[in-house]
Write a structure and sequence with these properties.
heterodimer; A: 344 residues; mainly alpha; 15 helices; globular; B: 174 residues; Four Helix Bundle (Hemerythrin (Met), subunit A); 2 domains; 6 helices; extended
Chain lengths: 344, 174
């Protein structure tokens, strides 16, 4: 009995647990900008994509599960969760599971730095932009490992294509965001949003926006840059041999990436949570983010796929040059003294 | 708390480094290296050098490990083959002894230079803006030389690739 005296009483533990669960940080990590938000939004994006693509192709899309088929993602999730995981005999199942899990982690990592409202950010980092880019730059490693671990032709070719594409498009992506950093003098995403109080960065950084949007399409492996997943050539690209829960995790990770990259475009170029005070800040942010996602989805419905050599040539010659031109335009703006509008 | 984080990160770095060296399959070695480098980035964060940590992640894990993986995949076609154990070299023990002595000597030197103390030393954290300014002003010459060096490396790599292709073209012509 003496040993038990040192233990706290049950109600103390319960009250402590309640205090932890209702604390702001915990809720931020688990509910709003954090876990629940990104998974639900990614699930919603799968539904949105199917619905929008269906409209583009004069179909109806998901219809039966819930109103307008809005519960379809949940039905799909349940189905995938109860499916058997089948890996090829010589595939490295452990490596594949590890990679699928790390894909999810890496996809969800940027949410820590992205401000969904004034002060509504999990960690207000001084180097938030570089943090997001560093997280994004981990994707090719994991995707290449998935391609190799599947021990099958199509995933391997898909993984290699993904590697070429993502590594070579990272450089124009970093450079095209540099103009904004030069104008604000900060890498903090909250400060970048606050700097856009007068004019969004879309206006002075049109060139940067064009390059950034294109590179984001390539990083997301969306049409017209969906070579790693070209379903007419490579079945499902590097995801071919993932099945069951592993497939669900990998698929959801790509939609989380779509959501967070749209959020990053919103933060950098579309004024983040800023808007007329008709709606609360986070609602403005979500509206803009889903608009950007819808544009990315509509592009999928309307463009053909490019060839890999054209893609690489465009990345290294055109996009990089345009990003450098954007930096020069920004330098001219700063030299002319027009940058006072965006200084923090 | 920082001590706990430090211990966990050091454990991650050391264990994954050992795994990287000892893994039978080269791919697993590369994965171990990636985890080890991420752990080093975590140590940088603990020391207050977030900027360095981010570049550690994006350059080392995002580029160098990819390069290693790519090389392994190009060289080794068949997967699942296990590296054969080489016969232990007779000089191996002497090498280990020398390596151990060097490690002890380095540790001694570090202890003499910076004695162990329970307090975490205060680090001067340069703001990013100051870092950029000093790079562009007082260290501008070094920066330009580094840029030239990297440019020369890129030109060298391109030249090597081009020579290779020209030789191949000659081969087909003959």
């Amino acid at each position: 009995m003496r040993r038990l005296q040192g233990l706290p009483a049950l109600d103390e533990i319960v009250s402590l647990a309640v205090r932890i669960i209702t604390s702001r940080t915990f809720l931020e990590i688990l509910v709003f900008p954090g876990f629940l938000n990104i998974t639900l939004s990614a699930a919603f994006l799968t539904w949105l994509e199917r619905k929008v693509i269906a409209r583009v192709q004069l179909r109806i899309g998901p219809l039966y599960a819930g109103m307008w088929g809005i519960l379809q993602p949940i039905a799909d999730g349940v189905k995938l969760m109860f499916k058997e995981m089948i890996f090829p005999e010589l595939a490295d199942a452990r490596l594949l599971m590890l990679c699928a899990l790390s894909l999810m982690l890496i996809a969800a990592a940027p949410v820590v730095a992205i401000p969904f409202g004034d002060g509504l950010v999990i960690a207000n980092m001084e180097i938030g932009l570089i943090y997001v880019f560093a997280a994004v730059s981990l994707f090719p490693t994991v995707i290449l490992l998935i391609g190799w671990g599947s021990n099958s032709k199509y995933p391997f070719i898909g993984g290699l294509r993904s590697l070429f594409q993502q590594v070579s498009y990272e450089i124009p992506m970093w450079f095209s965001a540099l103009g904004i950093v030069m104008l604000t003098g900060s890498l903090n995403l909250t400060e970048i949003v606050k700097a856009q109080q007068n004019i969004w960065f879309l206006v002075p950084q049109v060139l940067g926006f064009a390059v950034f949007f294109t590179t984001v399409l390539a990083e997301l492996e969306r049409i017209p840059f969906d070579l790693p997943e070209a379903e007419t050539e490579l079945v499902m690209g590097w995801m071919t041999e993932l099945s069951g829960v592993a497939f669900m995790i990998g698929f959801l990770a790509m939609y989380i990436k779509l959501y967070l990259m749209s959020a990053l475009i919103t933060v950098l170029f579309l004024g983040g949570w800023l808007g007329p005070p008709l709606l609360p800040d986070p609602v403005w942010f979500l509206v803009k983010t889903f608009l950007v996602s819808s544009v990315i989805v509509i592009i999928r419905g309307s463009f053909p796929r490019v060839r890999i050599d054209l893609l690489l040539k465009a990345g290294w010659t055109r996009l990089l040059l345009l990003a450098l031109a954007n930096i020069f335009v920004t330098v001219i703006l700063i030299v002319l003294g027009l940058d006072w509008m965006w200084r923090v | 708390m920082p001590d706990l984080a430090f211990l966990a990160l050091s454990g991650l770095v050391i264990i994954s480094a050992i795994f990287a060296l000892e893994a039978k399959e080269l791919i697993y070695g590369a994965v171990g290296l990636a985890f080890s480098l991420i752990g080093v980035a975590g140590v940088f964060v603990l020391l207050g050098a977030e900027y360095l940590a981010m570049f550690q992640v994006s350059v080392y894990v995002g580029a160098v490990v990819v390069l290693i993986l790519f090389t392994i995949m190009l060289v080794r076609r068949e997967s699942g083959r296990i590296v054969e154990e080489e016969e232990p070299c007779r000089l191996g023990r002497a090498g280990m002894l020398i390596a151990g002595l060097v490690a002890v000597a380095v540790a001694e030197a570090m202890l003499i230079l910076a004695p162990l103390s329970p307090e975490t030393p205060e680090f001067y954290q340069a703001p990013l803006r100051e870092l950029g300014r000093s790079l562009a002003t007082s260290y501008s010459v070094a920066l330009v030389i580094l840029g030239l060096l990297i440019g020369a490396t890129v030109v060298g790599g391109l030249t090597l690739a081009k020579i290779d292709r020209e030789e191949k073209a000659d081969g087909t012509a003959q």
